[in-house]
Design goal:
two-stranded antiparallel ribbon, Helix Hairpins, Glycosyltransferase, 4 strands, single chain, two-stranded antiparallel sheet, elongated
Length: 1027
């Protein structure tokens, strides 16, 4: 302490003011020490605060040791400063600092403990909340934001924070946890929103798949308006089904709008696609009607021809041909309706269909003529031989007549039995149909009742949803109001606290100012004593001032206590308000839980009603289908009955004809026998009185008469018995059958292929179903019967097409180059190439070419020359062959050629006929066959002389199954569609069908593209062929 620029010590003060000098100096030094102590306390307080604000968490023991070490250093520095002070002042300050350090250390340790506890509670609450949300998301069960809030409140309530003590607690853990609870709830809500978006996308995908399944049962064609209504009804059913599945989720409005827009857009796409298919099906229905009309006319023509020719047999070949031409012309005129081109096509089709029948009738006529000639020949034999032959013929004819009579009786009995069975079946079907109609009516009544119940349930659900929305709105409004009131009270309390703190600071400032005044007044008093001796009044004023200061300090202390009490009251009020808010939130959550349970219950009831209604509708559809099937069966039985009736009439007529023939034959036999008796009697009489001269005359007359009789025969015939004539006729029939292509039988075989879906062969060949369709369609198109392929199979083939191009072996299978080629060729033959995704399919094929020019079949990387052939076929049809490296592809095929000039499937493999076909076909489509023509010609010419065209045709014909149809790999084996297709193609390319009117409708097959030449010309396809 300085006085007049010099240190002021106790001795100097005693010299200046002898009275009370030491006491005043001690007071002044104590005040200065107190100030140093206060500064040290502030430093200690700031140090503890800084340690508490460190981000890293430390356990209480380590934190206490760390802070204690720092505080000891601060106290030691303060004691160093107080070293020059009196010992009592230094001791007093040391004790005060020691107590302050202990108190601050205790408070800091407690604050650190509260901080660690708060951090632990936050981490645990966040972990449990996140775990619950992840578990709900993983389970896939519906849950709402209210359930999330309720679960988070439950987790929050599970923590025990103890009773708060504002006077002691530095951190309000409960308040901090409330704030963290709000932040965590916002984060979890954002995660819930992201999950909701994924759920909506899943529901969109489910709705699309359900809509596709709903529309798969639509049978085309149908009116456009009905089709649109059917698609709209399917969409509504799917939306209702998805809406029932959406129950239990809290979907934002924009997500529901997105769901509705997506379903509507996809429905429009399906409607456009089905409209196109409906138009195509409508066009095809006319073709089916024309085909049905053609079939009826053809059956009638066959029946009339059969009756006319059978009734006129025996007859000449020219007469038979004229009769055939008359019936054929009349039927063609009836079907063509005056169109010349249509007349010619119908004429060709009828000739092809009637070829087998006419061949059989001609054979029968030939046999009958041979038999008549044999009988005529017998008449010119000797009398005894003639008589024996006539007797044998009569006996044979009698036996045949009896056999025919027995056959007619058996046929009549079989027809009667069949008619009775059909009658009983028809009665049974009618009874069952009536029962099904009654059941259908009851099901429709049940369905209507269920629909009414479902409508009522929907109305209740809507009312409950509206009531829930109103309750949520009221709850939100009330919660918002309470939050506003609480916020207002908190702001008011904060304002009051700030005001009280300002007043406290002002009071502390006044106290400090009073202390400064006291410190300043003392030296002034000393100065006055020095200048004016001692004045007792000054002392009294100082005492009064000290008492006034003490009184003000006491008042300030009382005001401070009042302010602290007011803060306590505000804290209690805030806690009470928080408790009220929590209570109201719990009530709101309870109400939401109740509403959610009621809605879930109603939703379950609605779902049950919807499921029952769907089941009833399904049963109704099944009953309708069963009823339709029964009607179809009844109609088929009626047609079969009519067929049997006509067959019985034909057989009865044939029986009458045969009986007439038998009577005529018996009359001729009796006349022959009588003539033989007369001749024998006359010969006996002449023999009794014959002379040598008469004998010679008789011999001459006999020879002349025999010569005259032989001149009456139109054509000399060999002498054959009846059995030999029959044997020759049978041999001729067998020879003609071995040389005949059974067109009708093969068509029946091809038509029955689609009915063998449950067979073992069909199940084992499921992966190559598209190839089987190509072989079957190729066979029918080559035979000129492409209209026999139903639209359902074409739609199935289109369903094998992938959206990004290419075809799989069946629906749902991976796309492959081989099946893509077969599907494209099939659609070309059927005239449906506009249904191919041309750009996408070309992209798929181009992507399969390898750097060396070869092609792989799919992503698995198998290389084969047949894939190069398939790729070039598809790209040439799609007009996209310029997109590949043609030179590299041709060069790769060159690497597959062997020393014998043949080709393997890959470089180094042995030559094979199939590989040669694909390699040469690819070179032909690439117009580079001339580069390899010498080697190929050498390979072919080495073995071409081995091939006998006629014998090869005969071999293919011998591989036919004349009973069930189809062609096998060799005679006697089971036929299959693969060899049937290539057998027909082989006969076509070998020219078997050329110049045969019965096969005029059969088309020539192109040797490179393996489709009819007409389709190759229509698409303008070119290939290099060297002859």
């Amino acid at each position: 302490m300085l006085f007049n620029q010099q240190p002021l010590t106790g001795h100097k003060l005693a010299d200046m003011m002898p009275l009370f000098a030491e006491s005043i100096y001690s007071s002044m030094r104590r005040g200065e020490g107190k100030k140093i102590q206060l500064h040290a306390e502030d430093a200690i307080r700031n140090f503890c605060k800084a340690q508490l604000e460190l981000p890293s968490l430390v356990d209480t023991q380590a934190f206490t040791a760390q802070v204690h070490l720092g505080l000891v250093k601060l106290v030691q520095g303060t004691l160093e400063t107080l070293r020059s002070f009196p010992s009592d002042v230094a001791d007093e300050c040391h004790k005060a600092l020691h107590l302050f350090v202990e108190r601050e250390l205790e408070l800091a340790s407690k604050s650190n403990n509260e901080k660690a506890q708060l951090s632990s509670c936050k981490s645990e609450l966040k972990s449990k909340g996140t775990t619950w949300l992840d578990k709900q998301i993983a389970s896939g069960t519906p849950f709402t934001i209210s359930m999330l809030e309720e679960e988070l409140l439950r987790l929050h309530a599970s923590f025990d924070f103890g009773e708060p003590n504002p006077a002691v607690d530095e951190v309000d853990i409960e308040q901090e946890m409330r704030e963290f609870h709000a932040q965590l709830l916002d984060d979890l809500k954002r995660q819930y929103t992201f999950h909701i978006r994924r759920v909506v996308l899943q529901f969109i995908g489910t709705a699309k798949s359900l809509l596709e399944k709903e529309l798969q049962v639509i049978v085309l064609p149908m009116p456009d308006q009905k089709l649109r209504e059917r698609i709209h009804e399917s969409k509504e059913r799917v939306v209702l089904d998805i809406a029932s599945q959406m129950q239990g989720w809290s979907f934002p409005q924009e997500e529901m709008v997105h769901f509705g827009n997506a379903v509507t857009e996809y429905t429009q796409q399906l409607q456009d696609a089905y409209s196109k298919q409906n138009q195509s099906a409508s066009k095809d229905s006319a073709a089916r009607e024309a085909s049905a009309r053609y079939k009826v006319a053809k059956d009638a023509l066959m029946h009339s021809l059969n009756e006319a020719i059978i009734g006129a047999i025996p007859m000449s070949v020219d007469a038979l041909e004229r009769l055939y031409d008359e019936h054929l012309l009349r039927t063609c005129t009836q079907l063509s309706d005056g169109h010349q081109i249509k007349h010619e096509k119908i004429m060709q089709s009828l000739k092809a269909d009637l070829a087998t029948l006419m061949m059989q009738l001609k054979t029968i006529n030939t046999c009958v003529n041979v038999r008549i000639r044999a009988l005529n020949l017998v008449n010119f034999c000797s009398k005894e031989t003639e008589k024996a032959a006539l007797m044998n013929a009569a006996e044979t004819e009698r036996q045949r007549t009896e056999e025919l009579a027995n056959q007619v009786k058996q046929s009549q009995a079989l027809a009667a039995k069949r008619e009775q069975e059909m009658h009983s079946k028809l009665l049974e079907k009618e009874t069952k149909s009536k029962h099904l109609l009654d059941e259908l009516s009851s099901q429709e009544a049940k369905t209507q009742a269920l629909e009414r119940q479902l409508q009522l349930a929907k109305q209740k659900a809507i009312e409950l949803a509206e009531e829930k929305k109103r309750a949520e709105a009221e709850g939100l409004k009330l919660a918002s109001k309470e939050r506003q009131d609480a916020q207002r009270l908190i702001e008011e309390n904060s304002t009051k606290q700030n005001k009280l703190q300002s007043e406290l600071r002002a009071i502390q400032a006044r106290l400090e100012q009073q202390q400064i005044i006291l410190q300043v007044r003392t030296p002034v008093g000393f100065t006055r004593i020095i200048h004016s001796s001692y004045q007792p009044q000054a002392k009294e004023r100082e005492v009064q001032a000290a008492e006034i200061a003490k009184e003000k300090a006491k008042q300030l202390s009382l005001e401070k206590d009042r302010a602290l009490k007011a803060v306590e009251r505000e804290r209690a009020l805030r806690e009470k308000l928080s408790e009220d808010i929590l209570s109201h939130q719990a009530q709101t959550a309870k109400l939401e839980t109740t509403m959610s349970s009621v809605i879930r219950e109603k939703t379950r009831e609605t779902q049950q009603l919807q499921a029952t209604l769907t089941d009833q509708e399904r049963k109704t559809q099944q009953l309708e289908q069963e009823l339709q099937r029964m009607k179809d069966q009844a109609q088929a039985l009626a047609q079969e009955k009519e067929h049997w009736r006509r067959q019985n009439e034909a057989m009865a007529k044939s029986k009458l004809d045969m009986e007439m023939q038998v009577k005529d034959e018996a009359a001729r036999r009796e006349a022959a026998e009588a003539a033989a008796v007369q001749v024998a009697a006359k010969a006996a009489m002449e023999a009794m009185d014959v002379t040598p001269e008469k004998k010679r005359k008789t011999a001459v007359a006999s020879s002349s008469s025999k010569k005259a009789k032989r001149l009456d025969v139109k054509a000399p015939l060999p002498k054959l018995s009846l059995q030999e004539a029959k044997r020759l006729a049978k041999e001729e029939m067998d020879k003609r059958q071995h040389d005949t292509f059974f067109l009708a039988t093969h068509l029946k075989y091809l038509a029955n292929l689609s009915k063998q879906k449950e067979s073992l062969e069909s199940c084992l060949s499921e992966h190559l179903r598209v190839s089987a369709f190509y072989w079957a369609a190729g066979s029918l198109c080559a035979l000129g019967k492409a209209h026999h392929i139903p639209d359902e199979l074409i739609q199935w083939l289109l369903a094998c097409q992938h959206p990004n191009g290419g075809f799989g072996g069946n629906v749902g299978h991976d796309r492959h180059l081989l099946y893509t080629c077969h599907a494209v060729l099939s659609l070309v033959m059927l005239g449906k190439e506009d249904h191919i995704l041309a750009q996408e399919t070309a992209d798929f094929v181009v992507s399969l070419q390898q750097p060396d020019g070869s092609f792989v079949g799919d992503i698995h990387g198998e290389v084969d020359t047949k894939y190069t052939y398939c790729a070039l076929s598809v790209l040439k049809i799609l007009k996209q062959e310029h997109r590949i490296n043609m030179d590299a592809a041709m060069a790769h095929i060159k690497t597959c050629q062997n020393f014998d000039a043949g080709f393997g499937n890959i470089p180094g493999c042995e030559s094979h006929g199939g590989h040669i076909f694909t390699a040469v076909g690819a070179l032909s489509m690439g117009h580079q066959l001339d580069k390899y023509v010498d080697l190929v010609e050498h390979f072919v010419s080495c073995k071409l002389h081995w091939i006998n065209k006629d014998k090869l045709i005969q071999f293919i014909l011998n591989c036919q199954d004349k009973d069930d149809g189809g062609i096998a790999d060799r005679p006697g084996n089971v036929s299959d569609i693969f060899h049937t297709f290539f057998g027909i193609c082989g006969l076509s390319m070998l020219g078997y069908f050329d110049d045969q009117p019965a096969f005029a409708a059969i088309k020539k097959v192109h040797p490179v593209f393996a489709i009819p030449d007409t389709d190759v010309a229509r698409l303008g396809l070119t290939a290099q062929i060297i002859l």
